[in-house]
Amino acid sequence: MPDEAFYNNDVVKQVDIPTLAGVVGVLANHVPTIGVLKPGVVSVIDLQGNVEKFFVSSGTMSMNIDGTCQVLAEEVVKVDDIDQTAARAELEAAQRASVEGSDVSKAEAQIRAEV
User: Which candidate, 57, 45, 107, 100, places its Cα nearest to that of 82?
Assistant: First the structure.
């Protein structure tokens, strides 16, 4: 859903964010930083220790000087909502395609497999 906020002004214990530089674990009083999202899973741990996971595609993250954290993603899906059978079938198709065809189609298939 466009422009949906999954968390807004919520206090949480930790957020783990996949970036091109690696997974960034954000806790209270984290140093301000920015990063580019890598396709992967963002984990949000609330104050009671409950974990909610979201698959994100491309986007950005920022840890602000006021202690807030912002993750802006092109696509977000709750991990619990992902059709695992369809995801496995897509992965297998992408892996097969990554070894067949032209260099361009192989590169596209490798990207599909990574996402």
Answer: 57
Cβ neighbors of 41 (< 8 A, separation 6 or more) are: 18, 53, 54, 55, 56, 79
Tokens standing for 103?
A: 């260099």
Number of neighbouring beta carbons within 10 Å of residue 103: 7
- Look at strands 33-36 and 69-73 and give their pairing: unpaired
Residue-wise burial string across 19-42, b where 16 or more C-beta atoms lie within 10 A, e elsewhere: beeeebebeeeeeeeebebbbbeb
Of 44, 62, 61, residue with least CA distance to 53: 44
pTM: 0.75
SS3 80: helix
- List per-block mean pLDDT (blocks of 10 residues) for the chain, which spans 115 residues: 75 94 91 93 94 93 91 89 79 73 64 59
Question: How many Å apart are CA 18 and CA 58, to the nearest integer?
Answer: 10
For the record, the structure tokens of 10 come out as 């919520």
